[in-house]
């Protein structure tokens, strides 16, 4: 009866501690709203207190993750800004090299894109030495091939030249004893250089300055001065770009130029002064009688394709022949009296010249 009253008063039966639920840390969970001490003295409260602590821990972890994501987002944004700055700085640097070239000339991508690509690759650090297969840093001593414009470390190309000359010299002495001093070649394009042209100094691209110092505001390995190299062999102007890698673009100076056939003239860029007017060429052909019927073109005119009435070499036959074939032969024997006065010519149609008798010592007619 007393146990029944106790059960009725509390609403549940007292259970031993061993059968009560436990927390993950080993503490015994008391009934909701009650506390209980376990063997280690730990007190655990079943109900809102235990769950609240777990929720607080999860919330803290969530906040730390959000803070970490925010930090990563900030880092990503900074990296994107830095990349954008580098790209813009690269374009600005390329524009500064071409500042004297002219806006209209720069729009001709076919003539300037190669030089611009060399400048941008250098600024971005994308140029690789083909000897050591390592990047050519912007402050490293380098050498550039004048034919293919490939860039190499100065030390690498010097070793290449030394080993190449030694090998060629040995082969030359054994197989070609009369050959001149051996040459060395570019590792990329195989262009031959004389031994005297072996690189011994670190020069800027225009070769005006020795050991050019690194400057982040100009093209790497450049002195920043005007290039000044002669643009081409058929042009008297010099390159107006600032010291740059790669080939000099076509001359941007304005000149008065004539078309291929010479009938028209106009003001054009010196580098593009050769042009066709699109009219009939009308130059006199080699025959001296007819004119070229092709449209205005570069190079010499072709042979005359007109047909004219021509006489053979011996003068007996006349027939239509190509004007370009200024002479022709018929198939008849000449039969003319030779200079000896006794014999006749037995050769097939030939030019009219004094023919000496082939019969040596002949005294009369046969």
Which descriptor suits the 3D outline? elongated
| SSE string, helices as H and strands as E | HEEHHHEEEEHEEEEEE
- Biggest sheet: strands side by side, in what order? 1-2
Count the strands? 12
Mean pLDDT: 74
The count of helical stretches stands at: 5
| Cα radius of gyration in angstroms | 47 Å
Percentage of residues in DSSP E strands: 5-15%
Helix content bin: 25-40%
Taking the sheet with the most strands, its summary is: 2 strands, antiparallel
- Low-pLDDT parts are 1-15, 32-48, 354-366
Question: Ends: how far apart?
Answer: 177 Å
| Secondary structure category | alpha+beta
Tags for this model:
two-stranded antiparallel sheet, 366 residues, disordered C terminus, disordered N terminus, alpha+beta, 11% strand
How would you characterize this protein structure?
A hairpin with a 5-residue loop joins strand 1 (35-37) and strand 2. Helix 2 (48-97) crosses helix 4. The protein is α+β, with helices and mostly antiparallel strands. The radius of gyration is 47 Å and the shape is elongated. The protein has 5 helices and 12 strands. The strands form 6 sheets. It has a two-stranded antiparallel sheet. Strands 3-4 form a two-stranded antiparallel ribbon. It has a two-stranded antiparallel ribbon with strand order 5-6. Helix content is 28%, strand content 11%. The chain starts with a helix and ends in a 44-residue tail after the last strand.
């Amino acid at each position: 009866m007393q146990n029944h009253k106790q059960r009725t008063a509390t609403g549940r039966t007292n259970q031993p501690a061993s059968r009560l639920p436990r927390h993950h840390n080993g503490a015994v969970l008391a009934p909701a709203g009650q506390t209980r001490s376990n063997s280690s003295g730990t007190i655990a409260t079943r109900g809102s207190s235990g769950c609240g602590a777990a929720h607080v821990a999860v919330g803290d972890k969530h906040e730390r993750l959000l803070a970490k994501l925010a930090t990563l987002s900030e880092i990503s944004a900074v990296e994107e800004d830095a990349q954008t700055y580098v790209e813009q700085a690269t374009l600005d640097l390329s524009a500064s090299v071409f500042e004297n070239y002219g806006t209209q000339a720069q729009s001709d991508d076919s003539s300037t894109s190669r030089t611009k690509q060399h400048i941008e690759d250098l600024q971005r650090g994308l140029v690789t030495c083909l000897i050591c297969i390592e990047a050519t840093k912007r402050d490293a001593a380098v050498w550039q091939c004048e034919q293919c414009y490939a860039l190499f470390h100065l030390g690498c190309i010097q070793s290449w030249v030394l080993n190449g000359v030694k090998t060629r010299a040995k082969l030359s002495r054994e197989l070609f004893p009369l050959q001149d001093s051996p040459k060395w070649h570019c590792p990329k394009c195989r262009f031959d250089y004389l031994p005297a042209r072996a690189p011994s100094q670190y020069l800027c691209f225009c070769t005006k300055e020795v050991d050019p110092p690194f400057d982040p505001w100009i093209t790497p390995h450049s002195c920043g001065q005007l290039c000044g190299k002669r643009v081409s062999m058929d042009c008297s102007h010099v390159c107006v770009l600032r010291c740059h890698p790669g080939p000099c673009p076509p001359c941007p100076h304005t000149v008065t130029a004539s078309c291929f056939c010479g009938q028209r003239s106009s003001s054009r860029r010196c580098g593009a002064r050769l042009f066709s007017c699109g009219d009939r060429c009308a130059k006199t052909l080699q025959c001296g009688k007819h004119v070229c019927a092709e449209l205005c073109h570069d190079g010499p005119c072709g042979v005359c394709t007109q047909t004219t009435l021509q006489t053979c070499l011996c003068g007996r036959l006349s027939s239509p022949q190509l004007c370009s074939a200024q002479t022709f032969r018929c198939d008849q024997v000449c039969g003319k009296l030779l200079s000896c006065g006794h014999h006749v010519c037995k050769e097939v149609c030939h030019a009219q010249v004094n023919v000496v008798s082939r019969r040596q010592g002949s005294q009369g007619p046969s």
